[in-house]
Task: inverse folding
């Protein structure tokens, strides 16, 4: 079961250093936008929009990097997904959405929801462009499995910023576990379907529901994240078997 289309693979002299450097770009843009929101004492909706602008600019830089690199945008995954049966038509990732919606609830106003919708879309595109696009391509010459694990660990570790926000070790640990598992599944979907769009849509929808719930760390919300972690772990293991068959020719 080999893809008929090439996958993005970018050979660099120092791939791991390049991967870390590229992974830090969206973090830097988000940090600057967050700092601007704090300095200007922006309200909740305005802060969300400011960070959305930062994420959108970061995504634009990522797409420029893709354009000037050897692989094409289509090779990176800007194309319709294929081999949908091999990923069980995305049912497990889709199930995470009603779980988090039911356990986190909605705790923000309607105008703020619109701002968070813009933020969720910008973040979803931004992080998938960099992590499942550029970083995955840089590590892919070492094999699909190495690339999946490498980009997912970077994705999870960089989400440890929650510790700096005052989260408890237990909550930060659960969020780290989810981020890593999310990264693994998103990367597996990119490898198996040859497309970034499934992960972008899932990422944006997940973030929006979390924003709508006020990024709740209530026992109920955390239990929902725990259930999602179990679901994604099982799904990741199922997709992992035979993922090398989707390696295909590389650009």
Result:
């Amino acid at each position: 079961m080999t893809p008929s289309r090439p996958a993005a693979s970018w050979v660099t002299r120092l791939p791991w250093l390049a991967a870390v450097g590229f992974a830090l770009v969206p973090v830097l843009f988000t940090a600057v936008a967050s700092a601007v929101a704090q300095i200007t004492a922006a309200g909740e909706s305005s802060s969300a929009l400011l960070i959305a602008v930062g994420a959108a600019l970061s995504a634009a830089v990522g797409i420029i990097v893709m354009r000037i690199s050897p692989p094409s945008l289509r090779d990176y995954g800007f194309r319709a997904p294929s081999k949908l049966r091999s990923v069980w038509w995305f049912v497990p990732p889709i199930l995470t959405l009603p779980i988090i919606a039911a356990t986190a609830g909605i705790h923000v106003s309607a105008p703020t929801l619109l701002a968070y919708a813009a933020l969720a879309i910008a973040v979803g595109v931004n992080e998938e462009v960099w992590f499942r696009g550029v970083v995955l391509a840089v590590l892919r010459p070492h094999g699909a499995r190495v690339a999946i694990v490498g980009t997912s660990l970077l994705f999870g570790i960089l989400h440890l910023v929650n510790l700096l926000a005052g989260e408890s070790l237990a909550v930060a640990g659960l969020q780290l576990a989810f981020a890593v598992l999310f990264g693994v599944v998103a990367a597996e979907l990119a490898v198996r379907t040859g497309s970034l769009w499934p992960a972008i849509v899932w990422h944006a929808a997940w973030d929006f529901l979390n924003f709508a719930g006020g990024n709740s760390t209530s026992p109920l919300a955390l239990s929902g994240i725990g259930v999602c972690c179990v679901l994604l772990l099982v799904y990741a293991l199922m997709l992992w078997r035979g993922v090398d068959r989707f390696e295909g020719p590389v650009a």
User: Anything to note?
Assistant: The chain has a mean pLDDT of 93. Residues 15-246 form one domain.
